[in-house]
């Protein structure tokens, strides 16, 4: 009688592996025993790790995409040029991500996990709580929200993959490219201090987000015919993630206090609903970083930005 061979570790491709989210996903995947193909644009920028291999180039390049996904079990896509003009966001985010997904499908990759955003949902003042089937933004919304919405729709049109659209709100966590721990606080420091304190500040910590992305990529969250129980096999399933409820008084107040400046509170109509991560909870996900810890970390990071 022969013993069963040791199962091969899952192989996962991560695009944008040197970014705030991508780097954390690589670490989370290694922690789950996966071998990671880290795709970056510049040599020497991929996270280090005994089971991380760097691949350099444009993730939307057909030949590179086909090469890097060959033999992989899953892919996590994190690339979107936020802050660029709409055409660039369409070319890289919509067209590039969709081309990469097709390459993954053609190579037999089983799972595609895409980092979308809760920004695809209408969060105007009259909107209430947000769940996965809530109304999406219209064409007249901001470039980022519209192009992320369009990327999601394009991915849903790529047949033959089990695709999960993970939709986080503001992502808290340290890093030089972190929008909410670094870039937005820099804007506040430089004078952009107006905010309605009652506006909802929906957030998730990058480590909690990375944990769900990694679990999905390695198949720890099992597919299901019911999206409330797991990703629909062969289909496209959105899932929201969020930490504890918070307001702009929590976030903006912490940033201003850490910078030693006064906030400029306003009273215009604002969204006061919640991002409801009920589906993610049913899939077994729960945030580990609470609001107090996240704001303490934020305060520490912002203090280093003072003049």
UniProtKB/TrEMBL annotation:
Superkingdom, taxonomy of origin: Bacteria
Domain NAD(P)-binding: 16-186
The protein's name: NAD-dependent epimerase/dehydratase family protein
Organism expressing this protein natively: Aquipuribacter nitratireducens
């Amino acid at each position: 009688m022969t013993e069963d061979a040791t199962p091969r570790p899952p192989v996962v491709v991560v695009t944008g592996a040197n970014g705030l989210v991508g780097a954390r996903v690589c670490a989370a995947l290694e922690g789950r025993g996966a071998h990671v193909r880290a795709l970056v644009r510049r040599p020497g920028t991929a996270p280090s790790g005994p089971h991380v291999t760097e691949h350099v180039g444009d993730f939307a390049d057909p030949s590179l995409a086909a090469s890097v996904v060959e033999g992989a079990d899953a892919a996590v896509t994190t690339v979107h040029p936020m802050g660029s003009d709409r055409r660039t966001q369409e070319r890289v985010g919509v067209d590039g991500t969709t081309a990469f997904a097709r390459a993954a499908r053609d190579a037999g990759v089983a799972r595609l996990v895409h980092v979308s955003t809760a920004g695809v949902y209408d969060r105007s003042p009259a909107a209430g709580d947000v769940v996965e089937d809530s109304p999406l933004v219209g064409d007249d919304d901001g470039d980022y929200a519209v192009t992320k919405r369009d990327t999601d729709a394009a991915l849903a049109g790529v047949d033959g993959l089990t695709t999960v659209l993970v939709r986080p709100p503001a992502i808290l966590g340290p890093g030089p490219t972190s929008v909410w721990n670094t870039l937005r606080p820099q804007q506040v420091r430089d004078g952009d201090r107006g905010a309605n304190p009652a506006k909802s500040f929906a957030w998730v910590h990058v480590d909690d987000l990375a944990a769900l992305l990694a679990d999905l990529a390695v198949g720890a969250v099992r597919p299901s015919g019911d999206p409330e129980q797991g990703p629909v096999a062969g289909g496209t399933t959105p899932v929201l993630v969020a930490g504890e409820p918070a307001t702009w008084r929590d976030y903006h107040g912490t940033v201003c206090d850490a910078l030693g400046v006064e906030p400029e509170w306003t009273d215009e109509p604002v969204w006061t609903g919640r991002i409801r991560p009920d589906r993610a909870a049913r899939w077994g996900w729960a945030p580990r970083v609470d609001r107090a810890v996240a704001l303490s970390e934020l305060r520490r990071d912002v203090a280093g930005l003072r003049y």
